[in-house]
Specification:
Blueprint: H1 2-11, E1 17-20, E2 29-30, H2 35-38, H3 47-60, E3 64-66, H4 79-92, E4 97-102, H5 109-118, E5 122-126, H6 132-137, E6 138-139, H7 143-157, E7 164-170, H8 176-186, E8 192-196, H9 208-214, E9 230-233, E10 239-240, H10 260-264, H11 267-278, E11 296-304, E12 309-315, E13 318-322
Parallel strand pairs: 1-3, 1-9, 3-4, 4-5, 5-7, 7-8
Antiparallel strand pairs: 2-6, 8-13, 9-10, 11-12, 12-13
Amino acid sequence: MYRNSFLQRLHYPKIQTAYLELTNKCNLRCKMCSYQSAQGKTGFMSWDFFESCVDQLSEIGVSTLCLHFGGESLVHPEFKKFLSYAIQKRDEGGIDSVGWTENGMLFNESIANLVIDLKLDFINFSVDGVGSINDEIRIGSKYSVIEKNIKYLIEKRGNAKKPVVLLNMVDYGKTDEQKLEIFREWYDCVDGIDIIPSILPDNSWENKVLVSQNAQTVPPPSFCRFGFDTVIISWEGKVTGCCLDYTFNLDLGNATQKPIKEIWEGSKFRAFRKAVVTSTFPVGSPCYKCDFWKINFKPKVELILDGKARMEYGYVFRKVRKCT
């Protein structure tokens, strides 16, 4: 079954996940983030363009629509309007699920109430430590504000199944004890914690040797599969097929000029997929030195916090989940 699924994706690529970058502006300056400094022009996705993209993705029939990419989506002045329309197309169109990742600073009670009312599918909050540890890494953030905002959402959600609430933590700038402190604080509150590898500006794995001392890795897949099932569209229409191409250097098309489906099936995207399979990227490509897709931990489950939670090792990510 796995081989058939792999061959299907290879020979008949289909958009399963779409990212719409509502803005590339951000209210924080995180120490491990090189993307904001690399940005040139910044701005906001227009309503007409957003509506067109969502309508097209609904017609295509995507599994997941993510309302974020290079910036903080809540900076967008029309975020609530955008979110409501995306949910409408989930409920009445061909989009299966909607969610986004954000830093929690602008996530107030009004947004939380809307998220609950709309039955948002998922939301990921980025947290990189408890208290001052987080604030020293994520410059401009206040842990106390983020904690209050997340816990209000959890309390408001109650026993409902939506939204699924996760924390994202970059494996950067923290001791093992400081990571455990995050797990202790949050494992019983949120639905899970995902540990993201720290990636350098050239997209190589920053602490590969250090992590490998504690977690065994196994050979990766034959190639990165991202461009075979995922499309990313910038606030101004640029298209990429790489999850780390925050400046859209791949230039696979512009969705303000051509339909998304036409770009996905076009010559630039096909050439990109060929380069992915054959590992023939030019110097300067975001894929040239990329380690992200190669990170593959040997599958195992490790009990932590005196058996109250478990650490799941797998492809790219390590995940902390509550033991039930």
